[in-house]
Amino acid sequence: LGIGTLIANNVYDAAYPLHDGEYEGQNDYTNERKLLYQEWARYGVFYKFQPINLIRKYFGEKIGLYFAWLGLYTEFLIPSSIVGIIVFLYGCITIESDIPSKEMCDQRNAFTMCPLCDKFCDYWNLSSACATARASHLFDNPATVFFSIFMALWATMFLEQWKRLQMRLSYFWDLTGLEEEEEHPRPEYETKLLQKKLKNKNITTENMPHLLFYVFCLQHEKKKLTWSDRMPGYAVNFGLILFMIMLAFSAVFGVIVYRITTAAALSFSTNETTRSNVRVTVTATAVIINLVVVLILDEIYGAVAKWLTEIEIPKTEKTFEERLILKAFLLKFVNSYASIFYVAFFKGRFVGRPGHYVYVFEGYRMEECAPGGCLMELCIQLSIIMLGKQLIQNNLFEIGIPKLKKLFRKLKDERTEVKEMDTDQSKDPQQWDLDYILEPFTGLTPEYMEMIIQFGFVTLFVASFPLAPVFALLNNIIEVRLDAKKFVTELRRPDTVREKDIGIWYNILSGIGKLSVIINAFVIAVTSDFIPRLMYQYAFSQNGTMHGFINHTLSYFNVSQLKAGTQPENSLFAQEVSFCRFKDYREPPWSPHQYEFSKQYWAVLSARLAFVILFQNLVMFLSVLVDWMIPDIPKDISEQIKKEKTVLVDFFLKEEHKKLKLIESFIAHDKRKRRSGTKSRRTRAASFSQCHRSPKGSFTSFSSQHTVV
After folding, report:
1. 12, 19, 203, 330: which one has the fewest Cβ atoms less than 10 Å from its Cβ?
2. Distance between CA 414 and CA 432 in Å, rounded?
3. What is d(CA 67, CA 73) in angstroms, rounded to the nearest whole number?
4. Which residues belong to any copy of the Anoctamin dimerisation domain (predicted)?
5. How many separate domains does the chain show?
6. What is the pTM of this model?
């Protein structure tokens, strides 16, 4: 019903509130749109606070809450960026005193490593990986453990502070007493319900009087769709979401195959420079391919999530929006983080050992981590995907696509519109014509989604990339003004919506915060060398120092036990090799249990699991403590609400007291009235009875009779 039906029937093209005039111009008249543009929606005013109250007045509470949340999130990134820079500088300062890096770079330590591939790869010295080891120390040092704990508490404090700010805004914007009104069903839901009703009654659309009667009945009966009606939609949702998740995993697997095959192909090269830079070349190109795949699948997943939500037929717009958000977030979360999860927890875990490697496609060995560990590669993967998404998807797409759509719509309108003869009208277009050229407002879901994904990059794997908050802060300084400019200059003015919170987004943020504790615990315990170093220093080292750590982590392999056809061909190694080394905790060839996991392996594994449990419980306890210490409602707001409630209660008590007094006066007046009425009736009754109770023929006077009575 209403304007929606008229637009659907092409009676109208669009319906939207008008902007308050132009945002640019030389006229002296300053409207709210122009004021917002000058003080908020320009990159030159990035240092100014946002005029949240004016944003709320112009766009409504829902959009006002989004920009308030974005502003608070950007402010909170400042302390985390400072701490992240300090952690990074700590790694730079201590790199020269890091003993394992020195041992790896010392060419006097002749660690002859096993070939990285079969047949075409030669033995190599561990000192050739010196640069990787030194770079890994920048992010793999004891300070990253502190930073992980700090970021977990930071996420909790951010959410608590947002609850306080949200409560403050709700109070000043008069949203504290806002109750959720019962929403009208969506037209798609009513249509489906009507079709079900007509099917049950076997009514055809040709019988219009009956059809209209059942439409009327439908509007007055409280009917709803049952599970059997929704089951086909749910089945399609489950199947397609599973397929999309498998598609993301398949893309990651395709990139893995690319890395394995490319590394093998480059190893065949006769160029020495190419062979020496195989790992760098493969890593860089694979990450770029992965970024392109992530950006493409992101757009596909957004459209698929919307279609899946539509076939579910949610009853209300709020339910529709929540289900759309959950589906889009699930798909985009898997798409954005699948490759990062692989590098962090799976790469190099299923390689096997020399003489017993794991192969894919019957000829290609599974890829293994660099000599310095997988943490450096995880850092590269995370940084490129994060920066790529921010620069390309969040900024270039947001700037370029609306401008292209606006230009296309303008050209289309100029081609199709009939030229008016009135030149004055053509020179001075009306505001609705100017606003019609702008892009329609489609909701805040894309804006929230890109920030939530960024929040995941900042918190989930921060142990591997302490500079993530810095890049997020730089992006958000631009993002705030970019979104502001888009709302003021590129979009039609949206309908104002009264909301007292950010809805389901808060629950998603809280879930990411809790998940980040677990993931960072496993990154530190499993991906980094923090636990092996700690165990060596306090359990295996003879003098309590890190000297000998590299030798401790390398196992021996007898090269005569290499499988036929896998030995290096035309080895150019300077000396004859009897034993080569590989990174693992295994028994040596001269042991009775050769190549089995050693006692050190099980000790380190136990320490890793113990650290995960200890870290998780400690951080969770501190998070709960911070949550308990910071009240959700600011003290001044709670006191003001109490005062208002006290005044309100006193007012009601006075009113009730006045009502009670008024009722008592009415009752007293009524009693008096009844008493006076009873006396008068008695007098009349006595006078009347005097005449009738005197016997016949009696001549007694009236006064004597009255006296007797």
Report:
1. 12
2. 15
3. 10
4. 2-52
5. 1
6. 0.83
List of residues 6+ apart from 592 with CB closer than 8 A: none
pLDDT at 680: 59
Residue 495 in contact with residue 17, Cβ under 8 Å? Answer: yes
572 in Cβ contact with 124 (< 8 Å): no
φ, ψ of residue 369 to 5 degrees: the values are: -70, 160
Q: What is the mean pLDDT of residues 272-282?
A: 73
Q: Which of 278-282, 321-325, 691-695 is the least confident region? A: 691-695
Rg (CA), the chain: 39
Could you write out the DSSP letters of every residue in 39-76? Answer: HTSSGGGTTSPP-HHHHHHHH-HHHHHHHHHHHHHHHH
Kindly state whether residue 696 falls inside one of the protein's structural domains: no
Rounded-to-integer distance, Cα 487 and Cα 480, Å: 11
Mean pLDDT of the chain: 83
CA 410, 414, 416: angle at the middle one, nearest 5?
115
CA distance 600 to 603: 5
Place of tokens 């400690």: 618
Nearest to 165 by CA among 59, 83, 50, 57: 50
- Rounded-to-integer distance, Cα 170 and Cα 632, Å: 13
Per-position b or e across 663-678, b if 16+ CB within 10 A of its CB: eeeeeeeeeeeeeeee
5: Cα separation from own chain's centroid: 34
Contact 351, 256 (CB under 8 A): no
- Strands (E) located in 523-630: 554-558, 579-583
Element (H, E) at 353: strand 352-353
Any idea which residue has 């035309």 for tokens?
Answer: 570
The pLDDT score that the predictor gives to residue 519 is 92
Buried b or exposed e, range 413-443, using 16+ CB within 10 angstroms: eeeeeeeeeeeeeeeeeeeeeebbbbeebee
Alpha-carbon distance of 632 to 635, in angstroms, equals: 9
- pLDDT category of residue 684 using cuts at 50, 70 and 90: low
User: For the segment 432-471, what is each residue's pLDDT rounded down to a tens digit?
Assistant: 888 888 888 888 998 999 999 999 999 988 888 899 999 9
- Residue 642 belongs to some domain of the structure: no
Q: Is residue 373 part of a domain?
A: yes
Please, which pLDDT band fits residue 603 given cuts at 50, 70 and 90? very high
* 599/187 Cα distance (integer angstroms): 67
In angstroms, the CA 695 to CA 506 distance is 98
Q: Is 305 exposed, middle or buried (0-12, 13-18, 19+ CB in 10 A)?
A: buried
The mean-pLDDT minimum among 124-133, 345-354, 398-407, 408-417 falls in 408-417
Residues 6+ apart with CB under 8 A from 678: none
More confident site: 329 or 377? 329
- Between helix 61-94 and helix 445-459 the angle, nearest 10°, is 20
Q: Give 114's pLDDT tier (boundaries 50, 70, 90).
A: confident
Tell me if 115 is assigned to some domain: yes
pLDDT in tens, 176-217: 777 666 677 777 778 877 877 777 766 544 454 454 445 545
- What's the chain's length in residues? 709
Domain limits for position 182: 68-200+241-410+447-534+610-617
Q: Note the pLDDT tens digit of each residue in 313-348.
A: 888 888 888 999 999 999 999 999 998 999 888 888
The three-class DSSP label of residue 2 is: coil
For the ranges 114-118, 500-504, 703-707, the lowest mean pLDDT is seen at 703-707
